Amino acid sequence: MHEFVPQDQEVLADVARWIGERLSGPPEVAPHRSHGPHDGRAALPELTAEGVGTAAAWETVRDEVLPTTFPTDHPRYLAFVGGAPTPAAVLADAALSAASVYGGSELEAGAVVAAERAAIGWLCSAMGYPSDAHGTFVSGGSLANLSALVAARHGRTSASGRPPGVVVAGASAHSSVRSAAETMGCEVAVAGTPDAVLRAADVEAVLAGLDPSDVVAVVASAGATNTGLVDALDEIADCCSSRRIWLHVDAAYGGAAMLAPARREAFAGIERADSVTIDPHKWLFTPFDCAAVVYREPAVARAAHRQSAHYLDAVEGDDADNPADYAVHLTRRARGLPLWASLLANGTDAYVDAVERCLATAGYAAKQVDTSPVLELAAEPRLSVVLLRRSGWGAADYAHWSSRARFSGLGLVTPTTYAGETVLRLCFVNPRTTQADVDMLLESLETLLDERTG
Ligand SMILES: *Cc1c(COP(=O)(O)O)cnc(C)c1O
User: Fold this and answer.
1) Inter-residue contact 265 to 102 (CB < 8 Å)
2) CA 248, CA 257: separation in Å to the nearest integer?
3) So which cofactors does this thing need (predicted)?
């Protein structure tokens, strides 16, 4: 089954054709092909002892499996946080799979490690981190947050003689922060109020009741997923540094907005964080999965994460630059390579333009909502998140419209809760989302009510 037979060449050509078609225009979602969470168990062929062959398997993937998805780079995928990879990134990613690169160490990965290091270096310089800051790419923001908190706790003992046991997190912190804390056996002390900027005073109020030696870290958000809010990083950094407490900034979604000069100010202080999470697979145009965790002082993270075993002796030289050493992983995909290849291909200015385009589209959407007789902003747009309400609608109406939009192939837009109220949330991370796409969605929101009341 490892032999690459002549018929496989034809499959390869078809895969290449399919990828080309997929990249050359906005993806289409055929009405009723997209399956929801409970109807995704389509009638797929059974696995058999003999197998159907590479060509038939590919045809099934192409015709039966992939068309049931709602791709995140669809221009009207505005739910959660989408992702719209560049062709340069997709092609490098596809080749990476074929190259069988073990991305954990320099020994096998050669210049791939240097390419990933350069991509990490670009992220660090965007944040204003020192030139010796470093980190690695992991599967997602969740693993990045866990890795950072493990590094924050490494080698420390609280006054009680045990490792520190409390993670202080803003009320808008991503769910993965709580999950990381639970994985580590830590408690979470919540600071501030949901859907509001976390300020130093909120953090101080929580720290006042804690023994600083028992605090693993303070976690602030730079772009809360639900609202796009950026916490008051500079003053929180003051509060942490005066108490010698580790500051982790979760910029998984929002960090990309730092590239836009007009937005940079909001991130002031991020360069003082001990560690930062930023996900290129969200708003920096790489395929899933690609998230970065970076450390101002990488030696601490390396001490926390480097695994040791006899069979690893060959890769354990003290000056080795091994991406495995900076997170909770060992074997890893060199998932930073597609980001690097795309930066090389497109240049860094194109990233600034693409991020600014998303911000401008969010601004356009907010303006259209504002002038609509039946739509209303639930909050001023922050970064590229727009929260809106439809007059007269309750939770069931939003859910009904959202599932109709998905099944008809119009778009993927889901409701959320903001300040205790059900609202619709639009998150713009695809530079190919146009004003016409926004108009289409907003018009549908307006006409559906007419249909139901008329
Ligand atoms: C998406 C997100 C995460 C989790 O990232 P995954 O890549 O989904 O694991 C963490 N923090 C924030 C702020 C996010 O937006």
Assistant:
1) no
2) 18
3) pyridoxal 5'-phosphate
- Tell me, yes or no, whether 255 lies in a domain: yes
Q: State the closest ligand 1 atom to the C-alpha of 251, by its place in the atom list counted from 1.
A: 13
For residue range 220-274, list pLDDT tens digits in order.
999 999 999 999 999 999 999 999 999 999 999 999 999 999 999 999 999 999 9
CA of 221 to the centre of ligand 1 (A): 11
Question: For 386-415, what is the mean pLDDT?
Answer: 96
Return all residues near 66 (Cβ < 8 A) that are at least 6 apart: none
Select from 361, 403, 418, 293 the least CA-distant residue to 84: 361
Distance between CA atoms of residues 164 and 213, nearest Å: 6
Whether 104 and 156 share a structural domain: yes
75 lies in some domain: no
Do 240 and 144 reside in the same domain of the chain? yes
Question: What is the predicted pLDDT for the residue at 320?
Answer: 80
In the predicted structure, residue 402 carries a pLDDT above the cut 80 = yes
Say yes or no: 136 and 285 in one domain: yes
Confidence of residue 312 (pLDDT cuts 50, 70, 90): confident
- Specify if 256 maps to a domain: yes
Q: How far apart are alpha carbons 450 and 454 in whole angstroms?
A: 5
Query: pTM here?
Result: 0.96
Average pLDDT in the chain: 95
pLDDT one-digit tens code per residue, 154-168: 999 999 999 999 999
Examine the fold and report which residue of 287, 321, 346 is the final residue of a domain before the chain moves on. 346
Q: What is the pLDDT of residues 135-154, one digit of tens each?
A: 999 999 999 999 999 999 99
Kindly state whether residue 11 falls inside one of the protein's structural domains.
no
Q: Please work out whether the CB of residue 225 comes within 6 Å of at least one atom of ligand 1.
A: yes
Evaluate whether 203 touches 239 at the Cβ level (below 8 Å). yes
Ligand 1 touching residue 253 (CB < 6 A): yes
Q: In this structure, are 168 and 123 located in the same domain?
A: yes
- Domain coverage including residue 319: 91-346
Q: Same structural domain for residues 353 and 340?
A: no
DSSP 8-state secondary structure symbol assigned to residue 392: T
Determine how many CB atoms are found less than 10 A away from the CB of residue 355: 23
Q: Which of 287, 313, 346 is the last residue of a domain?
A: 346
User: Are the CB atoms for 279 and 252 separated by under 8 Å?
Assistant: yes
Ligand 1 nearest atom to the CA of residue 140, by list position: 7
- Residue of 138, 142, 229 with the most ligand 1 atoms within 8 Å of its CB, for mutation: 142
